[in-house]
Amino acid sequence: MHMCLSYATSRSEQQPSPKYHHERNHSTSSTSDHALEYRTNWVLQVKLLTNRFFKNNYRDYSNTLGSLLQAVVLGLIVMGIFWQLSNSISDIENRNGLLYIVISIEYYITTIILVERFCTELKVFDREIQDNMYHTSAYLTAYILSSMPIILLQPLFYAIPIYYGCNLRHGVQYTLMFIAVNIILTIIVNGMVWMCVSISRDFTLASLLANTNFTFISLTAGYLVNYHDIPVYVQWVRYLSFCSYSYRILMSTEYSDRVIPGCASSNPADCTQYDGNYILETQDIGVHDYTTPWIGLVVLAVCYYSIAYINLYYIRFPVSGIVGSDCSSSEGDSIEYTGDMGHAESNKDCEQGGAVEQQQHSSSASDALLSSDTEYCRSNVTISISNVYLYVHTAKSHVDTVLGDTSSSTCLLYTSDAADDM
């Protein structure tokens, strides 16, 4: 049996397409979603999207479990390297290095992982936002809410083994401060990656932006180069560095008003290196330096997510991949399938107005099944099938409406309720 099928997909009046539907290009689009109407309110959009993201995270075992496993493994590795630090001068310096590693290495790895993940997931966002399915703010809010379990669990699995295995300062309040810093760092890194991916969906460019950002931020944390030794033309970076703020908090938590036991001399002048406040002074960090760094971390988190939202709201990217059935280019895209059962070729071409046509490959001319002034996206498909039974199920009332006379439907559509052999 040989059969040629030409069909069209209509944008019905009940499902209007967005104004910018045919304006897809690599440049920014001036059309924003505030001028468009939505079928549901913002709260319901957030609820539905959050539910969808929760299900995706639950079903995506590789990403979810991989993120937690990566945090546990890295935490155990760091714990093994700095196992049970003593109170000697060398271990005090090692403790400073540990605190710097805590706020840098894990979040650099997280940055690379999130860039790859967000680049993939935003392809769906680009398709759905051009179809006017939800607000940009609803999408971003729902994603943040659905990511909270991972954002809270990942720092716990990473921080707790390090804190107790490396013999850091004892006390519940110090432990909670250590964990809180790691949680806010996870939130900030997610926001930074959102900002980078909102600028470019290409993994190469987005990872370049994220790596460059993280490099300057980590180098100005205050450990590798002391704050007052940083050149003037680079000092301003420390005020944008979440590594700098978090390092200051951890150092203040570890050393403020603390005298580390271990000095063998009875002369207090010989034991200044064991004085926690003196250690903070040499690092250009204040005693109980908490308020300013915490404000800086919160402001950075808000800024990263705000910039990401603005980019997602105003910058439109062309849809990549086969996500929908519509055509987005004036040039036809050809798809060819070959196999033992047959051969199919498809040439896409968007037109204003259209018809659903059906014709038999052997002879008869095509009969128009549907026509109107509605916009259609029509695809011509040639299908060749050998030794295969083709069953078509359709409602009789629908065929009567479309064709009028059902007796003329001899190629594909049948008026009978049961399936017939072709």
Reading the helices and strands in chain order gives: EHHHHHHHHHHHEEEEEH
Total number of beta strands: 6
Largest sheet: 6 strands, antiparallel
> Per DSSP, what share of the residues sits in E-state strands of 2 or more residues?
5-15%
Q: Globular, elongated, flat, extended or rod-shaped: what is the shape?
A: elongated
Number of helices: 12
Low-confidence stretches: 1-35, 322-376, 406-422
Features:
6 strands, 422 residues, alpha+beta, 12 helices, 11% strand, 50% helix, disordered C terminus, disordered N terminus
Question: How would you characterize the overall build of this protein?
Answer:
The chain has 422 residues and is of the alpha+beta class. Helix content is 50%, strand content 11%. The protein has twelve helices and six strands. It has helices at 42-59, 61-81, 89-102, 105-130, 136-165, 172-199, 203-219, 232-235, 242-255, 276-282, 291-314, 396-403; strands at 2-10, 334-338, 342-351, 354-360, 367-372, 376-385. A six-stranded antiparallel beta sheet has the order 2-3-6-1-4-5, with no helix packed on it. A hairpin with a 6-residue loop joins strand 4 (354-360) and strand 5. Helix 1 (42-59) packs across helix 5 (136-165) and helix 6 (172-199) packs parallel to helix 11. It is elongated, with a radius of gyration of 31 Å. The protein starts with a strand and ends in a 19-residue tail after the last helix. The model is unreliable at 1-35, 322-376 and 406-422 (pLDDT under 50).
